[in-house]
Design a protein that fits this description.
165 residues; mainly alpha; Hypothetical protein af1432; 8 helices; 58% helix; globular
Length: 165
């Protein structure tokens, strides 16, 4: 299972980090901010890992990869960039920007760089944490863009028996 304490502790730290809070300045899918989106992805990852019953998930790396996967620090509408160009280039840009602002591990960089797979065909997820972020990002983006839901993954911490902490 996910290292719960490590995941929630790191997520809480990142939620308050001024560098991460900059993400509220940028638009994402259909009116959500980039901050809302990455937070939704992070909480979705935790739920997904629990539901899949995957053991040995690095909670700290999962929280950091999920919260920083879109740390590219621009608004796509301001860049006049096609969706294709943004989709294929932003994972590398996010990895570079996040590496500049945070001391990332190789696993965390891989999570960020592979989250758009298979669009970024050469950047295949190399860890279960990367697979979780890749899947959760697609689920959350679908909910935000198609179902027009702004808050997808915001839920309280859960214990092993499913009760709230």
């Amino acid at each position: 299972m996910v290292e719960r304490d490590a995941f929630w502790d790191e997520l809480g730290r990142l939620e308050r980090d001024p560098a991460v809070l900059r993400l509220v300045e940028f638009s994402q899918h259909r009116g959500s901010t980039t901050y809302q989106h990455v937070h939704n992805v992070a909480t979705c990852c935790a739920r997904l890992a629990e539901r899949l019953g995957w053991r040995g998930i690095d909670g700290r790396a999962l929280a950091r990869g999920a919260m920083l996967h879109d740390y590219y620090l621009y608004d796509i509408r301001d860049k006049h960039m096609s969706a294709w160009r943004h989709g294929t280039s932003h994972p590398r840009r996010a990895s570079e920007q996040a590496s500049y602002a945070f001391d990332l591990t190789q696993k965390e960089r891989d999570i960020i760089e592979s989250h758009m797979w298979p669009l970024t065909i050469t950047k295949v997820p190399r860890s279960r944490e990367a697979v979780l972020v890749c899947l959760a990002d697609k689920h959350v983006a679908f909910c935000e863009m198609v179902l027009h839901r702004r808050v997808v993954g915001a839920r309280s911490r859960r214990t092993a028996d499913g009760g709230a902490e």
